[in-house]
Amino acid sequence: MAVQAGRDMLLKISDGAETPVFQTVAGLRARTVSLNAKTVDATDSDSGGWRELLAGGGVKSLAVSGSGVFRDAASDALMRTAFFAQEARDWQIIVPDFGVLSGAFLIAALEYAGQHDGEATFAITLASTGEVSFAAS
């Protein structure tokens, strides 16, 4: 895989319709995708002193965070509406030369900030709720 520009990573939120239309969250300057899998310890007296983990027994999750500047009223409105309703929305996370992660996410945190002499910024954290699919690029 060749080196990729971070700006090419995209975060898209659905409009919540039956046939969803995805809106790119504009203005993102930083993005982080964390795939997680908790383990289940299956060690017993027959393990010979070594820890044993139960394959496939843990809970998988995906967390996404990003921050940036306000640029697009449409994506901001979708995020704000989903947050206040605590409604799971379909999201797409596009990682160049890797693939697309798709699934339902709740907005776990939505932060707004701004300096007197700077731009207004936001930060968002998503938590997966249910199965996340992956399609390789």
Outline the secondary-structure elements.
Layout: E1 10-14, E2 22-24, E3 28-37, E4 60-69, H1 73-85, E5 89-95, E6 99-114, E7 120-128, E8 133-136
In short:
With 137 residues, this protein is mainly β. Helix content is 9%, strand content 47%. The protein has one helix spanning 73-85; strands spanning 10-14, 22-24, 28-37, 60-69, 89-95, 99-114, 120-128, 133-136.
Question: Could you describe the 3D structure shown?
Answer:
The protein is mainly beta and 137 residues long. The chain has a single domain, classed as Pnp Oxidase, Chain A. It is 9% helix and 47% strand. It has 1 helix and 8 strands; from the N terminus they run ββββαββββ. The protein has one helix spanning 73-85; strands at residues 10-14, 22-24, 28-37, 60-69, 89-95, 99-114, 120-128, 133-136. The model has no long low-confidence stretch (mean pLDDT 89).
Name the descriptors.
137 residues; mainly beta; Pnp Oxidase, Chain A; eight-stranded antiparallel sheet; 1 helix; 8 strands; elongated
